[in-house]
Design brief:
Oligomer: single chain
Number of helices: 4
CATH class of the largest domain: Alpha Beta
CATH topology of the largest domain: Alpha-Beta Plaits
Helix content: 10-25%
Radius of gyration: 17 Å
Largest sheet: 9 strands, mixed
Distance between the termini: 23 Å
Number of domains: 2
Structural class: alpha+beta
Shape: globular
CATH architecture of the largest domain: 2-Layer Sandwich
CATH superfamily of the largest domain: Pseudouridine synthase I, catalytic domain, N-terminal subdomain
Length: 200
């Protein structure tokens, strides 16, 4: 992999778009305090309401390899949901659920869905997640090899547990390190090679 290529890991904050161009009142990647190469772009996206791990690169060859569902590169999400998630809902998420995307039926691939503990280093969100005294919340770890538009939110809603907060914490073998929104770390070629290795 040529040294002219550069790669970055970002903790994308809540409310920020996964792009450099301005759109409405949202903040963008251009608002981060970091001098990215002008030809860098995100590998996959997180919607404005989602947080966590976003990769940027100026190596166009990586995108197809990392995002192809057939390659088996997992993206892991920690999801705070409305209600106490059930074994049945986790089993449904693991098997795959039927969604409607752009008016067409779509069956999600098998995934790994597990109960999770709230991340201890997770910063408060601004604005905070809504709190309802009579209804508990719980956390799910969901690992996917595909990424349709707002797929994770659609999946949890489909099994009866709407998403309240969504963070991506892993892509391939690369873990999110640093829990500060806006955090940026430049990655080495070895980091990227490790990320592109198919998870067994």
């Amino acid at each position: 992999m040529s040294s002219r290529y550069r790669h970055f890991l970002i903790y994308k904050p809540y409310g920020m778009l996964s792009q450099f161009s301005k759109e409405g009142e949202h903040k963008t990647l251009a608002d981060l305090d970091f001098a990215f190469p002008k030809d860098a772009y995100p590998l996959g996206r997180l919607d404005a309401d989602s947080e966590g791990m976003l990769l940027l690169t100026n190596d166009a060859t990586i995108n197809a390899r990392l995002l192809d569902p057939e390659k088996g590169h997992e993206r892991e999400y920690l999801i705070q949901v409305d209600g106490e998630v059930t074994d049945e809902a986790l089993a449904q998420l693991s098997r795959g659920v039927e969604l409607s995307i752009d008016g067409k039926k779509f069956n999600t691939r098998p995934a790994r869905a597990l109960r999770a503990e709230p991340p201890t280093e997770l910063p408060e969100r601004n604005p905070p997640v809504r709190f309802r005294k009579a209804i508990p919340t719980s956390w799910i770890s969901l690992s996917l090899t595909e990424g349709k538009n707002r797929q994770v939110r659609r999946m949890t809603a489909a099994v009866g547990f709407p998403t309240l907060r969504l963070l991506r914490v892993r892509i391939g073998a690369l873990l999110l390190t640093g829990w500060t929104p806006g955090y940026v770390r430049e990655l080495s070629a070895d980091d990227i090679r490790l990320t592109l290795q198919r998870k067994k």
